[in-house]
Amino acid sequence: MKGPLRKTMTWLHTWSSILLGWLLFAIFLTGTLSYFRGEISHWMTPEQHASYVTDDTIMKAYERLSEVAPDANSWSISLPTVRDNTVGLSWQNEGENQRRRGPQETMNAATGESIDGRETRGGDFLYRFHFELYGMPRGFARTVVEIATMAMFIAILSGIVMHRKIFSDFFMMRTKNRSLGWADAHAVTAVLALPFHIMITFSGLLLLSSSLIFWTENTRGGGGGGERNQAPNAQQQMAENGPRGGQGDLATLTTTRTEGGRMTEQRTQAMNGARGQDRARAGADTSEVRARPNRDARETEGERLGERRTRGEGRQAARHQGRQDIPTPPLRNMLTQAELLFGGDINRVQVQNPLTADATFTFSPVDRHMLMAERGSNDSVTFSATGLEVERSQAKASENNSFFSAAGGVLHTLHEARFADAITRWAFFLAGVMGTIMVGTGSVLWAVKRAKRQMGQFGYELVVITNIASIAGLCGAVAVYFWLNRLLPATFENRSNWEINGFFVAWLLSLIHAIFYRNKGAWVVQLGIAGALFCLIPVLDTLTSSASLLHAIVHVDVLRLSFDVMCLLLGGIMLATARYLQNKARRVASPKPVTRKPTLEGAAK
Amino acid sequence: MTALWGILIVSFFSFMHFAVSVQKHHRDLYKKMAITNKEFRVLQSVAWITLLCTLIPAIQHWGVGIGIMTWLLLITVSALAVTVLVNFAPESFAKLWRLLGVVRFIAPPAERPQRTK
């Protein structure tokens, strides 16, 4: 390992990446697909495809909710956006745990019917797989992924050092030469998307960094989980501080806006409040004022529950009497006003005390304009039942503003491309594809370079087999996962498990195939099959969905169309690679290149 | 949205100049003529200036931190397009170059690459 810097770096580059290259390929591929997580999930529940937005959507949602949940405490409607074409309805009944998500259903935005989607993990499976793998203890899998990320980071840095002429090779592809073709594909994809590679690896490294801390149980549980794990942590923290920050706790219980795993402003305030009495009182006060005007912040738990029960009964009685008397609120007007105010689509409508005279309607937009905004705090505007604007609130900058948490937030946002619109999302995706190609060609390159010297040796053959299975096999397995989703009957028992089982069975089959046919065109066969499966996905889509592709084009179902285009693109890349490999195999077999076209360089000589 | 397309197109233009300033691709376009110092400097400066110009709308659109990162990604896409074009369709690249390349006003114009039979 001793020697000049460049040689050392080459050694480091080779060995740090080949050991974990296959895992990295899987992480890169599934991670890249996760940029289209919403699209994949949408595609994989074809029952939703018939839904599209109309002007009446919000009224339909209102009617549907008055039918199914007339007695609920609060309603929450998530309207169709660019990233979702159905309406999500959920509601909280009287006396239910406010923190937990209430009953919910998905509604067809055009017809107002409830949609009973098939059971599937959708894009979440691929997303989870890219940092937690599958069927392993979570902490362990995360640690493995973190180590692989570390290896990737080392490989990137050493790769930069060992690359002699980054700029002159910038656009160079020497496809005619045997091993240089791979080397160029590796170098070009690496250099072109270098900023992306550094960003994605570094941010991934930080996101999972706590998985390397073994000595404290707490951080490990919440390690790198991002969104999902912060809420339980907060709750835990509150439970610990319960007796001391009693008022803070109270404030949390009285909030009615809590929905899903999101923390609302009040709850966050209450959380901070649990740390100090003064702030707790402030938090309690504000949230009281916001949530219910007529409630005393200092009342005891028992009294409050009692009162709530009586009030609830009273309200229900009033509702049953006066239900016909309540005029339908001018929801469409409110929606237009809110859209004008925020200059964009409205995502979420929150209704308090629905179907009563003192109902309030809170509209929040899709865009999070502030990257550093506090979780759950958002721009919103509230209307009364008659359509008058009552309250406006703005997203607050996070209080916890240390440099490290700020940098972490930005990296997190970048890693997940949360801010991305269509073009940027595609740019991220393409860069991810380049990263995947880089990792894949890197592993292939290792074998190609050693082909002459080590053919037949155990280590070399092992690498060749694993290369085929982990690169071509995984592509095929993903395709099989998509196909199974449509081919398994919608009511099949344990369906989502079988989709995943199919994924792994396909992967295993490719491994077995690779063992026997590793030098007889296993690459071409497997890549060809995977590519064909991917390219045929639009056909499958239009045949097995509740609405044809034409319907998707007419109603501009961007999600579904992007998924199909993405599959065509991936399939095209795989087929092109398979063809390239086939031609090369032929060229190697026949010593004299016959079909070689006269090149410009050849002419110059 | 227009800003995004603008970034993609202008950076494509800029990467064309980068590509031609590389000796090998220069030779593809201008046959045997070696690249002169002046030509190289002009190509590089045109490329850098246009490329940096595209940074402005990106920063306006997303703010500094995210803007720079997204800009890097977007120009990656156009660099990829140039790479594919230069390597797999050199003739269409030459056509585009005759159409768009600024340097033809300064350096000798690009000739049609000769095809040998």
TrEMBL record, chain A:
Entries under InterPro entries matching the protein: PepSY-ass_TM (IPR005625)
Source domain of life: Bacteria
Coiled coil: none
Compositional bias ranges of the Basic and acidic residues kind: 276-316
Composition bias, Polar residues: 230-239
Region annotated Disordered, chain positions: 222-330
Keyword terms of this UniProt record: Membrane, Transmembrane, Transmembrane helix
Ranges annotated as spanning the membrane: 12-36, 140-162, 183-208, 426-448, 460-484, 496-516, 523-540, 560-581
Pfam families (UniProt xref): PepSY_TM
Protein name as catalogued: PepSY domain-containing protein
TrEMBL record, chain B:
TM stretches of this protein: 6-22, 42-62, 68-89
Transmembrane is among the record's keywords: yes
Pfam families, sorted: DUF3325
Superkingdom: Bacteria
Keywords: Membrane, Transmembrane, Transmembrane helix
Protein name stated in the entry: DUF3325 domain-containing protein
Originating organism: Marinomonas ostreistagni
Lineage, opening ranks: Bacteria, Pseudomonadati, Pseudomonadota, Gammaproteobacteria, Oceanospirillales
